[in-house]
Every structure is written in structure tokens, then in C-alpha cells.
Amino acid sequence: MYGAVIIFLLLILSSYQSEGLPVIIGFVLNASNGTDANNYSIVMWQPVNGRSVNQTDMIGEYGASALGNNWLIDCFDDPPTNNNDCDVDDVLNFEIIEQNGFTSLTMNFTISQDMIDMGFGEAPNVSMDFNFGPNITFWNPENLSTISGLQLVNASVQNLSRFNVSTVWYSIDNRTENHTKEAQPGNSTLPMHVNTFYYNDTFDTTLFPDGQYLLWVYANSSRGKWSYNLLNITINNTGKADLLVNFTTINFSDPEPYEGENITIFATVFNPGGIDVPEVTVLFYDGELIPENLILPNRTIGVAAGKSNITNVSYTPRMGSANITVILDPSLSDYGLIDESNESNNLVNTTLFVPAYTFFVGNLSGSFSLGSSGGSNLIIWNASTISGSNILVADSDSLLSFTSLKALGRDSAGLFVENDFSELDDLLDMENFSDSLNITYTAFGPPKNMTNFTVFSTLITNVSYANSTNTSGFITGILWDTDDDVGGDGQFDSADQEDIVFITRAQASSQGAYGVYDYEVRVPANLRRYKSPDTTTVTFFIEII
Amino acid sequence: MIQKTILVWLPVLVIGCIFAILFAVSQQSTGEVNWGRVLKGNGASTQLFELKKDTGESFNRNYVRFPIGTNLTAAEVIANEGVMMIRYYDEGDGKYVSYVALRGGVGKNFQITSDHVYELFVSHDLNLSVAVPE
User: Fold this and answer.
1) Do residue B61 and residue B118 come from a single domain?
2) What's the pTM value of the predicted model, to 2 decimals?
3) Residue A5 to residue B15, Cβ atoms within 8 A
4) Which end of chain A has a smaller Cβ tally under 10 Å, C or N?
């Protein structure tokens, strides 16, 4: 017992001996939008005592620091309920007291012996930040939609502040009762500053009587700032069907097809309504909604209440943009054959883009030999060194004079001609494309890039070129055949429609857009139609050096 | 029964008294006000304060009372090499008022008077000379 008393007294004495009374000084950075931190206040507390036991100081010259963007708190100035001074190894938290939406992260530091000895210590710098509530965007369901069965609630939550988003939840509110469900935001990690994640959850609409409701999604920042977005929805589990398509459920077997590729268009049809639909007609259109643009055959599928079904059609895209439309239960003007709770969600369209070019890539290998009828080789080319070899591509109907080739955009005398590219666009039906030759190869007239090629030992200068793809490993230039200039104007023109050649230079084992290979060339898909009668093929020429 | 109680608690009281005395002595020694020493020469007087650095092992508190008529500011005091902070207790506000030798001087640059006892923190042991007004 005596020992316990002695230890107790020693503790009292040792506590007194280690007592320290440092002044804490800190610096506050203004908010990133320039809002001045001065005249806001700092609150400091010991976590062991809780935030309610605290000390405060105004930032800036009107506070104890009397210095702009600084604060000063004397640990000895205990709040009335706190008898603990700042001692060595004590942890202190501090933050900017939220005012006008501005606050800060909660910072902490530990009192050191040096602080005690020197009489003061410096807290870490802290920056002032606006405590935005997260931004919530609904993706599903849609506003004013009718829903049934198990309903997916899908929203994107964007964090606009430096404070974590702590919770996202939804609530169904019919103004007389609330049904709230809290959930963590999917599998996403909780985001930091300016980050977006997707919130997914489901609720069982069958728990609610049919009727109109408000669907709320709330998100809460870790600093207590919450925000919400809401939708008007109708729950209908007993009355009518509701056939629905939206752009997120139109898919292509190849979302980046080339011209003429046979692809499949898939459409997912939902029925969040309350009754099954045994049969519904699904129409696919390519372009304007006229019979000539129907992508046949029309499809008929069944969709059970609260379920979905997928249908598809085959499609061969053309060059350029195609506006693909899917219509359920035609016709729209008379609301079709099926009585639905929402007749306005039976149409959706989306765009499919097909580039105007075909890209050829590959390797050059092997050997070529010129042989006699008796089988004797007269000349053998070994294609082991192929870098610098020219690869020329022309419409198969062209008769090329390889020594008469000139750069497109140059006349036979080598002078600049501005309209060659637009004329060739017209001939290839590319004039309205965003990747027309004129746009790809010229800067509204003058060529973007020029280089020289040597073809059949003839130097061709000032050849306009573009990168063959989105990499810079290979280029493609354009030439025209002056031998076809029957009109004698000395330049390429649509009247003579001189032969056109796309040329690239082989680069052994170089990186291209589709891998590592020896050549990569961009050729307009319509080059095969440049001259008749053949409209299906282009011809490759390889000039081995 | 009473005797037994006395026998049990008497030693406790004795030990408690010893620690109470030690506590009071410790408090007195660390809270002693430094009046300084007056040095005269060449027709002028200065008051010399021997200031001790507080360390983790010792507990030297530099409580200073400046001479009557002192005309100094806190900034002028911390301008002395080694003086890191000066503060006094404002009975009116019930708070300390501090001035710290950091970032060009943090805190209110108060006027030094002989009415307050000031606490000084120094980075090393040093002598602080203050002119004694005539």
C-alpha cells in the first residue's frame, strides 16, 4: 500500500516536471481559387480529449499571430474543461473551422521536446479548401420512367473536393414514408480529389405499391457535406408493360469496322413494366426512318415483365458515319400495338463511324527470281534488305507509267496546285468526310508534310504525305500519273482522272499501329472504284531496291 | 482500532509531507523572478539578465522583470541573438501574449513595461543587457 502511495506521489511530481507549455504556430495557404484564408479560424484539439475540448485562433493579423496567413495558439491557454497542457508526445489535431463552405483537411502533429525547450513549435502547413458536396449524375433509371421488378440504380458520383466521399445511398420517398438503403459505392475505392466513380445498387420495386415516387441518391463527403440528385419515377408492377431501349444497350460486334465488313448490331430490350410482352417487333434503320433504310429482316422477340431480351441484325457499313436507329413496337405515332405505361422510350439511335481508309500492313520477305523457260535463274532478288523499298497501291484498272509519276498537288513542271486534293476527294466520294484527303493531307491548301520518293530511279519531289496511321513509323504519299494527262493542262484534274498511286516506304520491323512489321499504308476504301470496270480490288506494286 | 489506523496512515502522511515540501521547493526554484544585476560605467547603467536554456533534463524558466521606465518592444527583445520567444500573462484576457522570433516575428509586438513579469525562451544560455533609464 505504501508503495502505491509513493508511486502515486512520484507520478504527480514527474507529471509536473515534464509539463511543457509551447506556443504553436502554423501557416495557412489560401484556397486554390484565391480565397484569402485570413480572418478564418483555426481550431486545435487533442484527439484524446475530443474535438469539443479545443482552442482557436483567427488566421492573420487580427489573430494572436498578428501576421498574415499565420496562426498562433498557446498551449497553456487551456479551455475551461481541459486541464491537460501540451506535453511531449502529445498529438494535436487542427483544421480550419468551416465558414462559407471553406475548411481544410484535419492535420496533426506531435509535441516534441524541442518545442518544449524552445517555447514554441511549428505545425504543418495547411491549405484552405472548399468543402463541395459530391456531384451526382443519374444514369439509371431515367427521369419520368416507369420501373418494376428489381431496379438498377446507377449514378456517377464525382468528388469535387479534397475530402473523401464517405457514403453513397439511395432513398425512395413517396412523401409519406421513406425507404432508405445505404451502400458502399460498388467495388470502387473511395475517391480522392476530383475523381468520379460509379454507384450501383438495386432495389426491389415490388416492395412498394404502384405509384409515383421520388428516387434520391445522396453522397456524403467525409467532412459532412452532402448532396443529392433526384428523379421522378413511376413504379408499376401490376398494370402495363413498358418496352425500353437506350443507347447504352445498342452494341456492335465490331465497334470500329472497316467499310464492307459484315458486322452484327445487338439491341437489348427491357420491360420494366408489370406484365409480360410475348411479342414485340424491333426495327433497325440505317439513316432516315424510311422503308428504304430498314436493315432487314425485322425482328420479333418476347420480353417478360422486369426482364430483358437481346435481338440482332447483320449489317454491312459504308464509309463515313451511319446513324443507326432502333424502334420498338412500331409505329411510334400511334403508340404501336402494345399498351405501355411509357410510350416515349421506344426509340434510340446511335452513330457508327467507318473510316474512309483501308489500312494495309505486313512484312516483305522471301526472294524473287526471273527465270528462263528452262528453269535457269537469270536474276535473283533477295528480299532480306527491304528498308527503303517502295510499295505502291493503285486501282486495279490503272495502267501506270512508273517513270511519269508526280506528286499530287504539283503540276508536271513541279509547281504547286492547290485544288488537286479536293478534286481527288470528289472523285473518291470523300469530300464530306472528316478525314477527307484535303483535310488529312493539307492545311486548307498547302501540304502539311512533304518528302521525296525515288521511283524507277526517278526522283519525285514535294510529295505530300500523312502518317499511315496514328503512329509516325510509316507514311503514305500520293502520286498522279502525268502520262494520263490527255487534256494537256499539265496538272491532275477530274476531267482526265489521271491514275492515282498511294506510296509508302518499307521500314523493316518497325512499330506501327497494329504491331511490328515492314510496311503500313493508308488507302482510301473507294480507290478500288476509282476506275471501272473492276470495283473490288486494288493492286500492289513493290519496287525492290 | 484507532491506534492501528494511526499506525497505517501516519507513515503515509509523513511521506506525503516530504513530497509536498519537495514539490513546493521545486515550484519556487523554477518560478523565481530574475531581477538582473545592475552594471554601471561610463555614466550609464545596464541591467544584466543571465538567461538559461530550458532542456529536457533541467527546468529553467526565465521569468524577467525589466527595470522601471524600460522602453522596449517585444520585437526589440527577440532581436537579441538567442532569444526565441517572449510572453507575458494578460490577467485581463486570462491568456498569454507571445511574440516569437520566427518568420520575421509572429505574434503581437507588445510594449515591455515593468508592470509585468515576462517569460523568455532562449536557444542557449546567454546574458541579456537592458539599458536602465536614468
Assistant:
1) yes
2) 0.46
3) yes
4) N
